[in-house]
Amino acid sequence: MSNALTHPLVRAYLSSVEAEAAVLSDDRRRDLLADLREHIESVLPPGSGDAAVQEELDRLGTPREIAAAAIADEPGVRPLQPESRVRTAVTLAMMVLSAPFWVVGVGVVVAVLAAVRIWRSTAWAGQDKRLGIICTLSPLVVTPAVAALLGAGGRLGAYEIYGAFLIAAVAPLAGAVRLGRGAARLRPQAA
Amino acid sequence: MSQLRKGVLEYCVLALLRDGPRYGVELLDVLAGSPVMATSQGTLYPLLSRLRRSGLADTFLMESASGPSRRYYQLTDQGRQALEEFAGHWPGFRDAVDRFLVPGAES
Asked: How wide is the angle at C-alpha A183 spanned by C-alphas B50 and A64, nearest 5°?
């Protein structure tokens, strides 16, 4: 007998609500998810089958609908809006490509511009924006730190420097993948 | 229509609590019984959460014979006052709208 909350359909449903409600403050989102969990637990006995689970989830409404109701209830919180593929692609490319060029200074400018584009976008919530900007600017700290580590033996040659730039590009790349997925989820065809 | 519903729905919930506490699922079931008020059930939770936060209703958990304990909602004094105020304004408001909507009734 498994609790209804561990049912795969319920888990997918709740994480979808969580993603759709990303613009809400942490408190509000936690409240909403707690209410939905309580509801699901009280209407679905442990060990319910897929059909019964799906029926209850349909009765609750789509994750998007519920998140929209919660967002509409919060004055000042604006729902996420999809942005064009091109805008997202340019931002993410700037994020990733800036990393190897920090040394010549161009990278710093591109990274700052990428950070501004992330901040002004309508496609990501505050939490994702902060994460994206930290990833974009991380080479500032990571590159010298890794170079210092690799060159600790006193042999800071070309390979060590290339290595440092490659390693410093990992965080921006990871951040870009996350932001790219978030932006893609908002586009209508993904609904 | 959804703005109108949103405006009055919270008073309908407060009115449902007038005669005593009810638990969440029970509230949703009653509301779903009035097709005009029924939206998807889950969209009512943000409303219940707002009533809680704004002090118009509070909640307590009570054991249930079947399954997990249930969260009951009950009116606070502030909620009761808000409900009375709305109930006082509503007939005049409803009649005024009717006067505009019903042809020939304007004068």
From this structure: 35
